[in-house]
Design goal:
A 4-stranded antiparallel β-sheet has the order 2-3-1-4. The chain folds into 2 domains: 94 residues, Alpha-Beta Plaits; 66 residues, no CATH class. It is an alpha+beta fold and 180 residues long. The chain is built from 5 helices and 4 strands.
Length: 180
C-alpha cells in the first residue's frame, strides 16, 4: 500500500477568476498535472486549462437507456408470449405495438438512473470529507474567492519550490493543506 504524502497539497487563493485561469495555464505549462480549481461559479476556460478530458457519462447514459429499453420489451414479451399467454380479441401474443409505451418509459428510466449513478461514481461521490475542508479560508470558495490546489501527488511537486511558484503567479495567499 502506498504511503500518503504528509500534506494533501498547496492551495493558492486568487481574488479574480482571470487570475485563476492565468495561474492554471502557467502551472500547466510549467509541468504540473495534478491540480484542481475551485470557484463560486463556472469560469469559462478553466476546465480546458486544467486539462479535463471528456466524460464517460454520455456513453453510460446511452448504455443504460438501451439496457432499460431492452429489459422493458423483453419482460413484456416474456409475460405475454411465454409465461402467461392470454388471447384477448384474437390479437397475437407478441403484439409489439402494445409494448412501445412501456419500452419507452423503461428506456428513459434506465438512461436517467445510469446517468445519475455514473456521474456519482465517476466523481467519487459521495465524499463526506475532503482534506480541503480543514482549511478555514477554503469556505470562501463558495462566496467570492478562487482557489488553485496543486496536489502533493504531482510528480513535479516540491513543497518549497511549488509554494514559491504559486506566489510568483500572483496568489493572494498560499496555504498548506494537511492530508487528514
Amino acid at each position: 500500500m502506498a504511503r500518503r504524502p504528509p500534506i494533501y497539497g498547496l492551495l493558492a487563493e486568487f481574488k479574480r477568476p482571470e487570475q485563476l485561469v492565468v495561474a492554471a495555464r502557467e502551472a500547466r505549462a510549467a509541468g504540473y498535472r495534478r491540480m484542481e480549481g475551485y470557484t463560486p461559479f463556472a469560469v469559462e476556460g478553466l476546465a480546458e486549462t486544467l486539462g479535463r478530458r471528456s466524460t464517460h457519462v454520455p456513453m453510460l447514459t446511452l448504455c443504460g437507456g438501451l439496457v432499460g429499453g431492452a429489459a422493458g420489451f423483453l419482460l413484456q414479451y416474456w409475460v405475454s408470449k411465454i409465461a402467461y399467454p392470454i388471447n384477448v380479441g384474437g390479437r397475437p401474443f407478441n403484439s409489439w405495438p402494445m409494448f412501445i409505451p412501456i419500452t419507452f418509459e423503461m428506456t428513459i428510466l434506465g438512461a436517467a438512473l445510469s446517468a445519475v449513478l455514473g456521474m456519482l461514481a465517476l466523481n467519487g461521490l459521495p465524499m463526506p470529507h475532503h482534506p480541503l475542508f480543514n482549511e478555514p479560508r477554503f469556505a470562501l470558495a463558495s462566496r467570492d474567492r478562487f482557489f488553485l490546489c496543486i496536489e502533493a501527488r504531482d510528480p513535479r511537486f516540491d513543497r518549497a519550490q511549488t509554494r514559491q511558484y504559486l506566489e510568483s503567479l500572483g496568489a493572494q495567499a498560499v496555504m498548506e493543506v494537511e492530508n487528514l
